[in-house]
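Weekend entry, working from home. Most of the wet-lab plans are on hold until the incubator is repaired, so I used the time to fold the two sequences that have been sitting in the queue since the last round of cloning. Logging both here for the record. First:
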Amino acid sequence: MAKQGAQNDVSSFPQDFMRRKIYSKSTAVMQNEDREKGNITYSRSQDPRSSKIFKFPPGGAAVTKDVAISLRKLLFGGSTYLGNQEWMKSSFEFREPGSALGYGLVSFKNNPRVVIMCVQAYVLKHLLFNKKDFPRESSREKDSLRPYKDRQQQAFGLALADIIWKAGSENSRCTICFPGDQAYLERELNYTPDGLTEKINLFEFQRKEETVSFLVKHVHLFQQESGNGVMLLLYSIILSRGIDRVKEDLNGEYTELLTPVCEATQALMTLLLTGRATPYLHNGVMHTIDEDNVAGVKEHVGLMSRGEIGALVWNRNDESSTQLGSCLKTPSFPIWVIRAENKYGVLFHTRRDLTRDHRAEHRFDLHYFNGCPANHQPTILTLDTRYNKPQDEYRMPVLERVLISKWQGAQVSWNETTPYV
């Protein structure tokens, strides 16, 4: 099985990407020195006084102690210690505008990657299939997968709106969380400040159009370097769904959305994709015998309708991945979030006919993207399902095992790319 060693090796990151990071850090150091001397100047895009970059939207309801404690417990299992910093300090960042991977969001850390890849899937939905959401194409915007900055930001805002509104759709409302300048809670016996949760303001919307407008206007608040963009999204979808309803969704299978080692549970992935935190992957409702239940039967509510975005899951020795139903296997758009041995990515096809016409599945290409900055060229796999030849599944790269869980017997070509998943 191929290793993905290069994926997390900082030394293998593209030099131009690392150079930009090093430059920005060096610039920040010089600016700090100049600021102390009182003679710093800023460009418009860097000015910390700019309302577009650093100012938070006015209004919103202050977070209460009960809500802050409940959010921390639902994610991390407690509110008296600081949340995992890998999660607390993750935000959203695009690849270079107009580049071969300009559609992609970067993921520097493994555990929060599930959130970034779910957002990535919705970004691709808008870039590829909802072009009416964008102004008329310019000559340089012909390639949907090479968006420039304005289109990146618009698609990102629309993706966030899809995810947050979907979580609140049953209540016909959603909640968006942004931090303010002041803390509403102090250290107490049952709460330790983490620098974010005690500062959030809650903005409630009852129409998706208003949600989209608000998010597109303030989308930069999810993107600040070393910011809290991932946590702001998680808090927003939890509160949009409702804390009590999320607990009901979990059905006793989990008590938190993150495992004790801060990996994402299956329920977190389905909450991001479907708006419900079900830990089950099957279609509809199943019943099992439960000796702890007075009635003797436990209800397992899975996926109740076909998703816009799909999912494909494969983990060795995990029976739950075999229960994946057609609601996620065959989504409305040919985009799938992939969980392969707890490594996340996105598979997508650039034309909708792949999920509309079975003849399109005879031979076709799929793009694979996992957000790792070590990858700077597209990965395109070719699948051929016409011959169904015997295969040695044990020696397959993990990603191919995921693929044949949907396209059984498919022959997979990596097209001169060395398998890395």
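Second, folded right after the first finished:
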Amino acid sequence: MGVFTFVCKSKDGVWSAKQYNGDIEASADSTYDLERKLVKEVLSRDSSGAVQSYFSLVSPTSGVFEVKIGGGSFVASGGGAVAAAISGIAAASEAPAAEAKKEEKNEESDDEEIGGFFDDMFG
């Protein structure tokens, strides 16, 4: 039984994937085509059982794809690698969003927001 985890990213309309702990890489114009290529590549290396696959978007331009060969519970065997890959991608994709929110907040004071709220409620 083998579990293959891939970090997927999209840039300029092309999706690419790199194995989390390994040397398998692929790219395609859609996530569907990318998944098919990765499954085919995994099967060329390990065809010892049934195939299960799972793709999850982390952001509009990144995701995690996992292929499991063999039996057993999908979540129990590969969940740790997927969680580690997702947390790494999520941290990288959230950093710009956090900076944007910070800039927005600086434009309008919290005191103005709270004061206006209470004025409307009790004034």
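Plan for Monday: verify the second prediction. The mean pLDDT is 76.
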